Give the backbone structure.
Amino acid sequence: MNGHLRDEKPAVILVVDDDKIARLLLRRFLDGEGYQVLEAENGPDALQILQETPVDLVVLDVVMPGMSGISVCSRIHELRISPPPVLIMTSIENDKEVDQVFEAGAVDYIRKPFPWTLLLNRIRHILSAHKANKELVLLTKKYETILHSADNGICGFDKEGKLNFINRAARRMLGYTDGENIIGRHCQDILHVVQAGGTHTEKAACPFVEAGKARLPVHYDEGRMKRQDGSTFPVDFRAAPIIQDNNLTGGVVVFQDITVRQQAAEMIRHMATHDSLTKLPNRNYLLQRISQAVSLATRQMRKLFLLFIDLDRFKPINDQHGHLVGDAVLVAVSERLIKTMRASDSVCRLGGDEFVILLESAVSLNGAILVAERVIDLLNEPIPVKDLVCHVGASIGIAVFPDDSENGDILLRHADQAMYIAKNKGRNCWHLYGDRFTSAEPLS
């Protein structure tokens, strides 16, 4: 699929990046997909081009000298009533910076380094959505059949904010039947948007119909919308004024129930922090949780204990009986570890046959040692897998915060080192990092 349909002009994409090589690669790639490409090496140059040339999409690097990509994006939306969509290229990872990207007006972002196919799909999606939004503003009654077939909720309002069109999807999502006459009611009576997070204060759905308000589009990326019965659903909400001859003549609202999208996003987040086999939290989760637990323990002036667990006879099981049996053993081990821990403790699988317990419930070293001994006893019990009976056992290294380290990463490393000492001592035992106390002898 090229950058334009037959008999249509190619979409114009402005690439803004201070890296000349990056711009060159983007130009070549987008040229090859049939798009018309403009370039700017900084924010001021980009704003100048946008004042002089119609642009369908801005692909904007977030880190640039002088004027950052976020500042450029904000400025684009300040200068233009109907700005082109902005796709941010970034290497950011934390939620706060992601929020800043969307607050500045970007429609999406893509993390560097990115696959070219992913970039192309994002561009196609954004251009398609932007084209649809522009067309919605110009729609008249002759397009009502098309609008009624859309999955998104679509409403039209006159210059006074009174409803003059609502499609079937909007009625369904808002809880109105086809027989209910709501045409002529004010948008504030029909559309109730609550921004997700924070105080759940209701936001103006179409502020541009109010006297003295700026005639600017409104976008609530992940808000909640109230139905007629007072219940709510997650929504991507967009409202835009219709301006003709510099006068407000009405407005268009487009909203989408994003329940499925949020569920998919939650599943992706869960997969990023959990082991697919055992369903236990993984290393990514553990490192985040250790950092939080260390901060809390520091404020409360108490200890934390890390138990690094390595199964003793797991490799022969895998080698002799195959990975299916080995996987079943790992699942059984994880279930036993979960059952022996309290809700405030975290059991994680680092990979292979290595597990870690972040022990926050224990108030003393003796308590942590008792947990380690209980785990060893538990993992010495036979594990039945179909017609087999497997025996593993475990070696455990123990590290203590803040005695062994005040840094979570180092604490984990010390627990790992202590585990290897337990292995060398004969396995099936625990060892305390620093050897301040005599480790338990191997259990019989």
